[in-house]
Amino acid sequence: MRIAIVYHSLSGNTRRIAELLAGRLGPLVEAADLFEVHDLHQYSTLTAYMVGAPRAMRGESAAIDPAEIDVAAYDLIVVGTPVWAFAPTPAANGAVGALRGADGKEAVVFVTSGGAPGDAAGRLSTALEQRGIRVRGTVLFDRRDLENEERLAELVAIVTRPPSGG
Known about the structure:
The chain is an alpha/beta fold. It has one domain (2-160): Rossmann fold (3-Layer(aba) Sandwich), CATH 3.40.50.360. The protein contains 5 helices and 9 strands, in the order βαβαββββαββαβα. Strands 1, 2, 3, 5, 6, 8 and 9 form a 7-stranded mixed beta sheet that branches. The protein has a two-stranded parallel ribbon with strand order 4-7. Helix 4 links the parallel strand 8 (106-113) and strand 9. Helix 1 crosses helix 5 (149-160). It is globular.
């Protein structure tokens, strides 16, 4: 199985989970490739709160680098995002729009949250499903879960589960 792990991270927490996931998947799958997306708007901690959070609440998509993410060669897509104002980041929303070759594939969503996650996972799942991508599961990591082996094992289990076929 080939897995594309697409994520946005500002503070490094989402990157940490993506890297841990790729490391755990390494011996279990043919490939677990990381695709970090960067918002072309360079947020600081202050502007992420003042500008980025309202954009996230509105469900806006950011212009990102890379502008396109070709996942045609992958069997499964994992999408990770921090939670900003109870929602996925604009860059994560942009990543969903940047996916190429994703029709009919399955995905897994994970979110990292410093507090209340709101419906960030649900909103990201809906965006993927609107692109014709079936979401097989979601996992939430709050700040206490960043080193939680059980939570990471839960994510690995969802990712490595056989395809649903439907």
